[in-house]
Structures are given as structure tokens and as C-alpha cells.
Amino acid sequence: MICFKLKFLGSFLMQQSSVLMKKLKINIALIAMIVAATAAFAFKPAPVVQGKHAPVNWFYNGTASTEAAIKDGNNWDLSNAGSCSAAGTRPCEITVEDVSTQEDLDAYLDGFTRAQILAMSPNRKP
């Protein structure tokens, strides 16, 4: 009789521990899902700014120093065809955002005077 009670008690404890293990596994899985969901929604994505481009460096490769020549987008290029210095009558380089073609640069420069364009250029061409 005692042997039967011990077997029954052992069997009962095994069932209980099996149920507890299942519950523990379910709880651990739920906690892992909650942590993953919290981590996934904890950060905001970086805002996307429409129409913004990286700054573009334009080099003046024209030979004339008149206002019309300096404002002409065809006289500017993305590569420098000469050397720049601290003195001179022509701009060397300007940095502009949202302007990636010579046509756009032509329209952009149309809003400035020769003096303003020279002020945008930290260096000059003789």
C-alpha cells in the first residue's frame, strides 16, 4: 500500500512538474515577444526630407569676369580646370544645395549679383 502511494505521489509530482515546465516555457516565450515588440517600436525612423540633396561644389571654368559670364551655368563645372588663389577677379568655387545640373545652376545664379557670387566663393581665379 505504501509502495502504491509512493508511485502515485511520484507520478503526480512528475505530472505537476511537466505542467509547470510548460507554463514556464509559455511565460518565457511571452516575455520574449513583449521585449521584441518593445524594442521594435522603441525607435522612430529618421525623417525623409523630400527634395534635399547633398551640397554640390561648382567650379568656375569661364575666362571672363563679367556678371553675365559668372551667372552663366555653362561656365561652371563639377571639376576644377585651373588653380584657385586668394586674389583674382573670378570666383573659384561655390557650394550649393539642390542644384545638380548646369541649367539649375544658371537659374540659381540668376538671383544673385556678381558681388554676391564672389562673396559665396572663398577663393578666386586670376
UniProtKB/TrEMBL annotation:
It holds the Pfam family DUF6520. InterPro entries: DUF6520. This is Uncharacterized protein.
